[in-house]
Structures are given as C-alpha cells and as structure tokens.
Amino acid sequence: MSAPALVSLSDALTRLKAEPELFVVYDRNAAWVAQELIPALPVKASLEIETSEQGKTLDSVLALERWLLKADASRKALVVGIGGGITTDLVGFTAAIYKRGVRYANVPTTLLGQVDAAIGGKTGVNLDGYKNMLGAFRMPEFTVLEASFLRTLPAREWRCGMAELVKTFLLADGAAYEKAVRCFASAQHDNLQPLILQAAQIKARIVAEDPEEHGVRAKLNLGHTFGHAIEHEAHLRGDDVAHGEAVAMGMILAAQLSERLGVAEKGLADALRADFIRIGLPVDSPYPADTLVEAVAKDKKAAGGKVRFVLLQAPGQVILKDLDLNDLHIDTK
C-alpha cells in the first residue's frame, strides 16, 4: 500500500477545483480557513459544526449522514473536513459508511491534526466515554499540511499538538526529538513547517507498512494506552483533560514502566519529565495507577487479560510487548 498522500495547499486546491461533487464540513473554530477556501472551490454544500470530545459520538455522525443525504450527495462525492482531529475523525467515519463509502480529504487546522490525527485513515467516534470504540479504517484522498492554518491556534491546542509531534520523534528519530524540544522551548514556531512535514512523513511511512494496525503501526500508540485511560477517568469525573495532555502524561508513565521492566535505562523517565516541563507539557497523572489499569482493561486493544504496549527503550527507539494487565501497575503521583 502506498503512503498516505500529504500535499501542499496549492496542490490541494488544484485537485479540489476539478471535483464535480464537493462537500465541505468545517469546525466553527476553523471558520476563517473555510471562508478563505470555499469561494475558490466548486462547493455543492457546506456545513459548520461545533466539536468537542463529548460530542464525538455516533449521533454526530448520523447528523452528518442526514446532511449529505439531504444535499443529494452521490457515491461520487468528495467530503472535505476542515478542522482539528475531532472534525477529521467525524468526517472520515461519515464518509466511510455513507452509501457504503465515499471519498474524503482532510484539511487539519491544528498541530495535532497535521502531525497525527488527520493522517493514516483511522476514523471513529467515542462510546460511553471510551475513545474511538466505533470506527473504520479508510484512507483520505489526501491531507493538507499548511502551517499558516495554525496561526490562530490557542496555547492549549499547541501543547496538545506538541505532545503528538514529540511522540512521533520519540518512537522513530531521537535527533529530531531533541530538535523539536529546542524549537518548542524557544517558541520558534516560525520554523515549525519542516518538523511538521518530518513527523507527518514518519507516520505516513508506518501507516503504509501496516495500514490496519496488525503490527508495526501499533508503535504509534506510544503514550496512548495510559493516555486513553486518563481521558476515560477524566470523562467519568467531569474533569477537563485534553487528548494531547493525556498522551503526554501517558508517555511519562510508559517510560516509568519501561524502566521498571528493564527495557530502558534508569533516568529515562526523569529526562523526559524535564523536557516536557521545559516545553510546557503536563507530566503527572491526576489519577492512581490502579484506576488507570481498570480503564486499560476495557480498551479496544486489550484482549485475554493482555494489552499490546509500546515500551520506550530510548528516544527514537521503542518495542512492542504483550503485557499482562498486572504488569501495568506503577507509581503515579
């Protein structure tokens, strides 16, 4: 399978102008991007939506399905999602099941979307607070990487994107990880485009090798097993924890577990903690380990009392290991 298509804005516009049946769904927070793009395109219908993790549900997908049906979208339609990862997940899943599948494209307007969420064809929604329990693998026609779309991104959204970007480099490129930490620590966001492209290309290569996560693609879940558990616990308690924040804390927990299991040398977790604090990422889970393990047991990747876990050996080096749930108990603060 070829790597997911990562394109510039100019290339995307050329492709979209040739589409005979174009539909656009955009997040209200990214309305300014949609307003720049839509007048230049042959858009048949557009829809503004509000997004939230709590609203990332099957009901939201059904609302989009009904909108497409009312707008007479045929199987030749191309649906473009403009916004963050929630928007591209919703649009991708909607496209995957509308009339047994239509094409879609992603225009991510968050850092998290450009380096992770909008790449790779994973689409889906949450179920009862559990992350992405309903979904489908369906590759977008292309994903646009355009750093200028990030210029109005709130600080918290920057942090969430930073977490996914450094995660990608932690699992595949130690030198790039160090460069990214320096970039974020100095707030040199004007120099971010090459790092975005590099991180996106790493993910695209891994996805091309293993599009449906039967093997190596699982490495992209570094920090996510504990991260999703943190998000689930936050959902139950009504706490405000964003995905990228949970992943950052999950990576620290993964490093601590890696040390305890003898996969990583002592001091790795502390070194990561120092780096993360330096660039403004959270490092300490607000919930105890036994509570997180209970949530991990219900994760979609858990089976037979085991979970495939991404352990960190060193920056740029990870391994996959099937662990008993009892092996996951570590100290949290």
Strand order of the largest sheet: 3-2-4-5
Structural class based on helices, strands and sheet pairing: alpha/beta
How many individual domains? 2
**What is the chains' assembly state?**
single chain
Helix and strand run: EHEHEHEHEHEEEHHHHHHHEEE
Poorly predicted spans: none
How many beta-strand runs?
A: 11
Q: What is the CATH superfamily classification of the largest domain?
A: Dehydroquinate synthase-like - alpha domain
CATH topology value of the largest domain: Dehydroquinate synthase-like, alpha domain
Average pLDDT number: 93
Q: Just name the CATH architecture of the largest domain.
A: Up-down Bundle
Rg (CA only): 19 Å
The percent range for helix content is 40-55%
Helix run count: 12
Main sheet attributes: strand count, strand direction, barrel closure: 4 strands, parallel
Tell me what portion of residues adopts beta-strand conformation: 15-25%
